[in-house]
Write a structure and sequence with these properties.
6 helices; about 120 residues; mainly alpha; single chain; about 10% strand; two-stranded antiparallel ribbon; two-stranded antiparallel sheet
């Protein structure tokens, strides 16, 4: 979900996207998963940088799922809902790869319109 949201922020009018998903307090900002700098909003992929003391990880997962549901994946041809895009990946690859590195490469390929097989 992190990679999908990151790409949505890059490709799909990021300021409108952030306004939609952050109406008020948002676990993504509070946990430092979603950050802002002079270049705009971005996803923090380094989990060591996250603050999960105030916001439990399960709340971050729920907020990520809600965030990708607010938009469509439009960069890989026919638009598809973010949740549908995520579910298609999970159905194919969940528990099929052996390491974090393999998953990271596979997810990056998939989000960049590949088949996820690397």
């Amino acid at each position: 979900m992190l990679h999908i949201l990151d790409r949505m922020l890059t490709d799909n009018e990021p300021e409108e996207k952030v306004e939609t998903i952050t109406g008020g307090q948002n676990p993504l900002f509070e946990s430092h998963v979603l950050k802002e700098d002079e270049g705009g909003h971005f996803i923090e992929f380094d989990k060591d940088e996250w603050d999960n003391k105030e916001v439990p990880l399960h709340q971050v997962d729920v907020a990520l799922a809600e965030a990708i549901n607010f938009d469509e994946v439009t960069w890989c041809g026919e638009p598809v809902g973010g949740e549908e895009f995520f579910d298609a990946y999970m159905e194919e690859f969940w528990d099929n790869l052996d390491s974090h590195e393999e998953y990271t490469a596979s997810i990056s390929d998939y989000v960049d319109c590949g088949d996820g097989r690397v």
